[in-house]
Amino acid sequence: MFPASFDYRRARSIDEALGILSQYGGDARILAGGQSLIPAMRYRLARPAVLVDINPIDDLSYIIEDGDTLRIGARTRDSDLERWKALAGYPLIADAAVLVADPVVRQMGTIVGSLCHNDPAGDWPVVALTGRASLVVRGANGERTIPIDDFLVDSYATAVADGEMATEVRFPRPGPGSAGAYYKMERKVGDFATAAAGTRVTLAADGTIADAAIAIGAAGPKAMRVAAAEALLRGQKPSKEAVRAAADAARALADPTADNRGSAEYKKEMAAVLVERALLKTLERLGVGGLR
Amino acid sequence: MKVSVKVNGTQYERDVEPRMLLSYFLREELGLTGTHVGCDSSSCGCCVVALDGDRAVKSCTMFAVMADGHEITTVEGLEQGAVLHPLQQGFWDQHGLQCGYCTPGMLMTSYALLKHNPDPSDTEIREAISGNLCRCTGYQNIVKAIRQEADVINAPQEKSA
Amino acid sequence: MNLHYSGQEIVPAPKAKVWAFISDPASVASCMPDVIETTVVDATHFETKVKIAVGPVRGSFTFKVALDPQPGGDRMNMTISGGGFGSVVDLTAGADIKDNGDGSTTLDWTGDASMRGPVATIGGRVLDAQAQRVISTTFANVKARVGATG
Amino acid sequence: MTTTDKPRHAIGLSMKRKEDPRFIRGRGRYVDDIVLPNMLHLALVHSPYPHARIKNIDSTAALAVPGVKAVLTGKDLEAAGLAWIPTFHGYDKQMVLAVGKVLYQYQEVAGVVAETREAAHDGAELVEVDYEPLDPVVDPFEARKDTIILRDDRENKTNHIYHWEVGAREETDKALAASDVHIKERIYFQRCHPAPLEPCGGIADMNPATGRLTIYMTSQAPHAHRTVVSLVTGIPEDKIHIISPDIGGGFGNKVPVYPGYVVAAVASVVLKVPVKWIETRTENLTTTGFARDYHMDVEIGADKDGKVTALKVGTVADHGAFDAAADPTKYPAGLFGIVTGSYDFPHAFTELDAYFTNKAPGGVAYRCSFRVTEASYAIERGMDLLAGRLGMDAVELRRRNFVGKDQFPYRSQLGFVYDSGDYHATLDKALEAIGYDTLRKEQAECRARGELMGIGISTFTEVVGAGPSKHFDIMGIKMFDSAEIRIHPTGSGIVRAGTRHQGQGHETTWAQIVAEELGLDPQNLIVEEGDTDTAPYGLGTYASRSTPVAGGALALASRKIREKARKIAAHVLEVAEDDVEWENYAFTVKGVPGKTITMKEVAFAAYTNPVPGTEPGLEATFYYDPPNMTFPNGAYIAVVSVDPETGETKVKRFVAVDDCGVVINPMIVEGQIHGGLTEGYAIAFMQEIRYDEGGNHMNTNFTEYLVPTAVETPVWETGSTVTPSPHHPIGAKGVGESPNVGSPAAFVNAVMDALSPLGITHLDMPLTREKVWRAIRDAKAAKAATA
Fold this sequence. Notes:
Radius of gyration of chain C: 15 Å
Largest interface: B-D, 57 and 57 residues
Radius of gyration of chain A: 19 Å
Helix content of chain A: 25-40%
Shape of chain A: globular
Strand order of the largest sheet of chain C: 1-7-6-5-4-3-2
Largest sheet of chain C: 7 strands, antiparallel
Distance between the termini of chain A: 48 Å
Distance between the termini of chain C: 40 Å
Strand content of chain C: over 45%
CATH topology of the largest domain in chain A: Uridine Diphospho-n-acetylenolpyruvylglucosamine Reductase, domain 3
Number of helices of chain C: 3
CATH architecture of chain C: 2-Layer Sandwich
Number of domains of chain A: 3
CATH superfamily of chain C: START domain
CATH class of the largest domain in chain A: Alpha Beta
Oligomer: heterotetramer
Strand content of chain A: 25-35%
């Protein structure tokens, strides 16, 4: 099918983009990779009056390790991330980088764009929640940094206000004794998640869990942190039981809607299974095995 | 809206509606009908072309205006002179196509793949082409075809096959 | 696809007043969110055009609304049918109205939405959230408006 | 009859495909690649309701869109007498654009013609249709009750379309009642869709100067379509020219005539310019020919040694809103009578009732001969259920019931005469290839560890090559096929056939057949199909009929040429015709070693030195009416493992041993098998066209109707046995569809074998993760409860 007509504005700098946005307000939408937006426009579900194309802004294409922070620009393609040499140092992100959409879509798709799209079944929101990411958002009156928990407002809704644009996503670099994992259940490559889970664990010197982060996707209106599981893992020694309990907490929290991918009941169950598997993988990456 | 884009080495200037998809720009403005369209959801990959040499993109999920100032390689650009690109040769030798509809997209995806990974394993090949659907071949001979080209690239520096 | 919603509002106003309010098309129409325009057809019918804006989905849906006051004044049924994007959304909403005896009134409402056409399969996850919002905001507004005029 | 042992000139060689050079260069010519001067574009308006009265259609807003030239509705077509057209086999009629009411979601209600595709879609969006919704009927078992009559246009006020049966009901019932063991299961072969990557489309070009209507269309059967268009429109057949260009896959989807073609044609006649209609993917999945949708009650009786005593299958078929099933006219349920499969059953009976529902019409053969996949799945699933009941190995049960190789030609209880086969040998080859005994040991170890591993067998027999004219016709047109061969003076030539390939490689294999018969170079024989002005009349390419029917025509046309060539050879060699022999692909003279003349030389003589008093030139046409169908068969074995936590199935190995008779091009045959197995895999695990209770189509695009990628698709191991068809001129049987016919049962049998320790015996396709997970969970719960 063919999109409805729209005005197209090319931005060569962030300021130019912000200028156009302020001119059109809510009628304008940022066009980054376009891999979610353009299909929606072809079905005429999305019909923005104006598209602000930020693809020409080369300054927004970067992956920088800045002290303890990983900074990824708004025009950095998923495939750039996938091929980034130092990605192995971020196992959580590395797991997800090869599971987003399909390899060709990843050539254009961007992580920041996906976070702004905030699809309830998207991969990056789960990873960002697990990785305690934050987003840098710029508007006419300056720049603000929004923690991911506040950024993801509701299905397809974020804290980015009209006239603003997200320019960067930041991930704290996993410290020593810290690792993560991401699991996605998909019916085939390119499918939206039936269920998804991200986990991150930091072990204390004594082998207890100093910190844990767990999030699930395709389990409600938006990706969710499983706070209960995080709490009950903290201070514990890794054990079969602890992992089970975390999975149970995910099951309890999940409130998915049924679709062709599965019933709510099945998706709840899979949220638990994937949290368990991701946790086990995370612990194995930390040298804690034998819990399967 | 003006678009200036280099396709298969030739510079083109066209004035098109912003909503014109790159796939239709190539097919209808430039007459390069090798790039096909098989779906509306960015699923099938029949429309894959190479952007700036090594980026395989779905041209039906990109507006022509987004290609302004860029280089596009389509299936028509693979052949050099009268000599088939080794990938084209591989698809022919290994029976990597049947109806031919997915073939241009498959060729362009593998073309970009081999630029990033000249010696992929069969598993890596299967993953790399998993954004391209084929209904005829079951992919097995497509993997062989790409393998053949990879072996050509790697022949010199390989000690033993 | 079929979706079910429910909720409750305690309205700080006597039952009679609440009943009168939700029996009046104009009042009910005024409570729907993002209304672009409304035409009251008769005592129990109105048509309204609401703005839909969830993430990528932007456009307007036109709804035909029929109020169906149940005898006894304890329940109001509502059928809302309309569409946009070449799709159809049918909503049946109902509210049980209970006098709490303290001058306030409880609205126990439920809503069932069924969607047809591209929206159901492609925009389902988007429109689900939107339908929920339309219904819940409408009843929340009923509370606010009736309360305010109290 | 040709056999495979002696060295061949062209047949049996893995010749690279002659069509490939244009495809790998992006120089194929598919219908959407064709652009004609002043061409307009057609977009269709679809109903969001599955069942509703149309109160009014308002085109005002649509006509106001810049570039929109016309809006056509059912009323306009009524005026032209084209609101309805006959369905495939002519038993029913179907709406082109809805008149009165719509009968399924996404049914076409209007067409918008504009200068650009975009404008046409802009207009389509603005056509305002006022509907009065009616209650939909989505379940054929509900439809059967006739509480809501869907087709008020028909005389018979019932949703029942027809009853069909074959076999001996009473004897079968008696035998079933008397059997030691007995199984009965309702097996549903879900509604699925062929979904070729190239959607359907066409360009209608009515030339006012010549009064000739040219239609470029994605047609698997251009000649049949020309005749249908003529009958429907009243335009003389000579004034209709159908061109079927390169086709991006068909799989049965491109056999029927769809509203888009007709509306485009009417628009072209009215507007006097070419009009192009190209389907969107959503239109393809929601409105064009679906496949299967058979609810089959399978009943098998056997004695305690596992010898089957009787088979009974009762089917309820969901045909959707119109009876548009693509079956030969005298075979409303296609060739479902093949349901006795590869087995020698003393008694068999099958009956079928078809019903209307508020779903898209269709019932095409999705890469299979008419309804053979449904039948093959039913019997192969049934045999496994019986093996389970008997506690007998599935292989052993099959061996005990196979038709023996000495029983051919074998007449089945349901009336087919199987041409040839050696089922035991084919199965043994598959068992050896997969290492069956070792696998069963491995499985025992897995089960000991509580792992779910399964091995599934399918030993199917297909019936293809429709067909003998005494039985097979479509709206009266007999299902023969044709070939026309012209050999040029220099020994090259052109070969034309009534078929139309969609990826099967006819441009190569047809040349190989002719080259084999005439000793010419296949590289210098060009093959042309799909243009009704030049190709001889034929019924087209579907149901694996091309090689069995057109393949025969090609061989026999070649032999006609060879007979004429023999006369010319005798004349040139100045010997008596009887002394000339065809030997090693050249003419030789009996008893005179070295005195030979090649076909190339004969060809030159045919034009330069013709036999006095005879017709010069060297060409022939042959219309081949096959004496019987052919019966390809095979033995497939799947090995799977199931994850009990998620219900996910992994296919570990798959061995396919096919017997398709004489193989023309092994490389192409293997490619066909890879493709068919992949489609079988998709059907078994992910493909279904599902409607919710409200009649909403739930699989409207490729994110919801799944085509497996290279990652999910298993690695296929293939092998073959060859029992030539005794009646086919070159002994070939056809193969394109065997893998799709035979493999679903192998996959499902494997998963059920994996789940058998839990007491699970049957699940319907597609075997989604949730379906399998749920079955495992419930079975475990039941076990726990009884424990």
